[in-house]
# Entry
Amino acid sequence: MLSVIYPATLRWIGLIGLAVNLSGCLYYGHYAARLESPAAMSIDPDYFHRETPHAPPKVLYHRERDGYTIEKLQFRTHTAFLYLPEEGINVKSVPRRPAVIILPITQGDHYTKEMARFLAQYGIISLRFQSHGHLLTAKNSEDALTEFEALLKEDVMDVLEGIDWLGAQPSVENERIGIVGISMGAVIGSVVTGVDSRIRAGVFILGGGDLAGILFSSKEPSIVSIRKRIEEEEDLTRKDLLAETARRLRNVDPLTYAARLDPGRILMINAYFDQVIKRRYGKALWEAAGEPPMVMLPTGHYSAATFFDYAQRRMLAHFEKVFGLEKK
# Structure
């Protein structure tokens, strides 16, 4: 099923007609068939196991805001913020509420802050992880590929610890925990969702699968710098280097876990003209995950910000549907 969506947010752009004709704001509906990911057959069950038990996060401060409270938390390697709404539009005064984990882009928190505040208006708790750009440090490593894998693994493990902590909170209904991520946050979020069945709904914005392909095709300068460092370190042909990169990043690649995703609980939002995570890698994850609902925006990676309000509304509608929340 394919239909075309015309969000009102870009009607003022003179060339929107051409963009829609080329790509529309394409919506791919759910198909029953699932394309099995070959990598899914070789999942290491102990890869994300941590030998030492993790301590609960340290509360750095607690602040009252208009309609919600916010706590700043320090996990093992990440900082996060807990947003606790007093009452929401769709969730009234109840002892336990749905919760959503929010994962950021590599550098910047503007959009994820807006998401957390937006969800609080609707009575949904959120745990927002802070961006700190650490993935970019891989370009300065003596073994950039190994460091890149280690940093991605640490990101996933910190989110898994966040789920442990969030699900134990008396205000959280742990049968209704969701996750949303943007760009690299969507990559991490899709891995987490495939690894941990406690995530009951996911929204992946500007993400995709096949990390080796993304790494060796992206035009994002920071990713290009990591790629160049890897090329300098490894004495391999480009073909062999791509294969070696895919092998070594397999355990942190969304495609490895895509067969575990429930397409009825997933929403993907991608950009047709994306040059950071190219369209084919979004489609690869979509196919491997059983073709969940997917919105294709007529934009590039960064210009997709024009559709941010639209994406928020689609995110909320998805969580409302999966979690069975009442409409206003």
In short: The chain has one domain: 56-320. The longest strand covers residues 172-182. The two ends are 29 Å apart (CA to CA). The domain at 56-320 is CATH 3.40.50.1820 (Rossmann fold).
